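Appendix C. Worked example: ETHE1 persulfide dioxygenase
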Amino acid sequence: MAGAVLRVARRQLSQRGGSGAPILLRQMFEPVSCTYTYLLGDRESREAVLIDPVLETAPRDAQLIKELGLRLLYAGLGDQGQPWPHPRLCHLRPE
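Step 2, the predicted output written as structure tokens:
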């Protein structure tokens, strides 16, 4: 599903064209797992997707989404089609 959401978002943004495309992109970092999370939003519709979220930073991400006035449509791994083990699943750290 993540792939489909991103394909639709990319298609809609590319149709608008130019450097003035109304896209919002935030990159956030979680240092324990060395994971980057990306918030991608549409400034017009206020819809957003959260890519590669980390459970421990969910409150931070939810607060940012609220502050930006966005409506979260989807949150999940951006590359679910990759075979296991996959390095981006580093959120699952050993105790």
